[in-house]
Every structure is written in C-alpha cells, then in structure tokens.
Design a protein that fits this description.
- There is one protein chain.
- This protein has 246 residues and is α/β, with parallel strands linked by helices.
- The chain is built from 5 helices and 12 strands.
- It has 2 domains: 32 residues; 205 residues, Rossmann fold.
- Keywords: Signal.
C-alpha cells in the first residue's frame, strides 16, 4: 500500500509538472504571436498620504491629486520605447478613471479564481479595437507596517518609539490582454527594487529622509516617484518576456 501511495504521489507531481510546462508553452507561443499592442496606464492621478506605526493606528488615509505630474503619460512613453523594439505600438484612447476605479488587485492570490475585472474594460472602453494585445498598467496593493494597505503612488510616514521613517512607493501591475479573446495572457506585479531599507514593501519603493514633506507640490517627491517607475518598468517587462533579449 505504501508503494502504491508513493506511485500516486509521483504521478500527481508528474502531471502537475506537465501541466505547468504546457501552460508556459501556450503563454510563450501566444506572446510570440503578438505583433501590435496598445498601452493603457492608470496609476498616477492621485497620491496617498499614509501614517503608520505607533501613532498611525487611528488615522485614516488621505489622498491628493497629482494629475499635473503627468505620470501616466510618462509611463506610456517609457513603455512605448521599451516595447517598440519588438512590437508595433499603436496609440489608444481609454477612460483612465474607469481603469483607476478598480482597486481590488486580481493579481493577489485571493483573487486568482475571479474573473479579471480589466478584461471587460479593455473590450468596452479602449479604442481602437482589433490590436493583437493590450498592455494594461494599473495600481497594485501591499501591506505596510501594522498591516495597513497601501496602493499605487504614495508617501508613507512610519513611526516607532525611536525613529520616524519616510517611504515613497509606486506599486503597479502589468497585464497582457489578448485583443481578440480578451483573455489575460500574462500578468505580474512590479517587484521591489531592493530589500536594503528599514521598511520593506512588496513593490517599487524607497526610504527617504526627512527633507521630504509629503506635499504633492514637491518637485523632489515627483522626481523620486518617477525614478521608481523608470527603474522598475524595464525589469517588470523583462520578467514578463516582453522585451527582446530578456
């Protein structure tokens, strides 16, 4: 009986491995077939201001408009440069507010069995239709400190008994959505750039000194957020095998 049990376990593992290999082959072949893409970006219209740690337990999060920063326009421009070596990138129109309004990340494990909420938006809100695929870049979510959720672009102040820390973040995820079937071919959340800071977060972020005041008008803050995106986007697209040579 023990030998039979081991055989069944071995067979299950082998079947799982074959299924994973087949899924990877299918995903790779579908990516290979893509010639034309459109890029949608909806992460940068507002910035959250968060307090966490010992003195932040009772505070509610705030947000301020940063639409004047043109962060989404910058993301589209950078993604176009990165992807144009492999794909024909065409300009698309879409309601950015509709994409930004979806706050529950379908990349999170708890949501893997749900229908991806961006599929229908690409079908109904993006023009022109008919491209091979659409690259959709939207906010991602992470935990900070005492368990408070943060998402998208933000500035967080984390207080302990002995020190205060400032953290900026630009959390986003990228989907490749088939332009004919609207299936999600690939999706990935941008990973942390490094893990050397005192505070760690699951996405592009950086610890900053107390010369930042957290105000949306700060040019240094805008530049620091933009740097997080420009450093992380090539890595994320490379991890998704969307850039030649990656």
């Amino acid at each position: 009986m023990r030998r039979i049990a081991f055989l069944w376990v071995g067979l299950a593992i082998a079947c799982a491995a074959l299924g994973a290999a087949a899924a990877f082959e299918t995903r790779a072949s579908r990516l290979q077939a893509i010639k034309s893409v459109g890029i949608v970006s909806a992460i940068g219209e507002e910035m959250s201001l968060t307090q966490a740690g010992l003195t932040g337990l009772g505070n509610t999060g705030q947000s301020v408009s940063i639409s004047a920063w043109g962060l989404d326009e910058m993301i589209v421009q950078q993604a176009t440069r990165l992807l144009s070596g492999r794909f024909r990138v065409e300009a698309v129109s879409y309601r950015r507010a509709a994409f930004a309004a979806i706050r529950d990340s379908a990349v999170a494990p708890v949501n893997l069995l749900r229908s991806d909420p961006f599929k229908e938006l690409v079908r109904s809100d993006v023009t022109p239709q008919g491209l091979d695929a659409y690259i959709v870049i939207t906010r991602a979510k992470s935990k900070l400190g005492n368990g408070r959720n943060v998402d998208g672009v933000g500035f967080a102040e984390y207080r302990t008994l002995f020190a205060n820390y400032g953290l900026i973040h630009a959390l986003y995820e990228v989907r490749v959505i088939d332009g004919k079937t609207f299936d999600v071919i690939e999706k990935r959340a941008a990973a942390p750039l490094d893990n050397t800071g005192t505070m760690r977060i699951a996405g592009p972020s950086g610890q900053i000194d107390d010369t930042f005041d957290g105000q949306a008008s700060s040019e240094r803050l805008r530049a620091a957020i933009a740097e997080l995106v420009t450093r992380s986007l090539p890595v994320t697209l490379g991890d998704m095998h969307l850039i030649d040579g990656q």
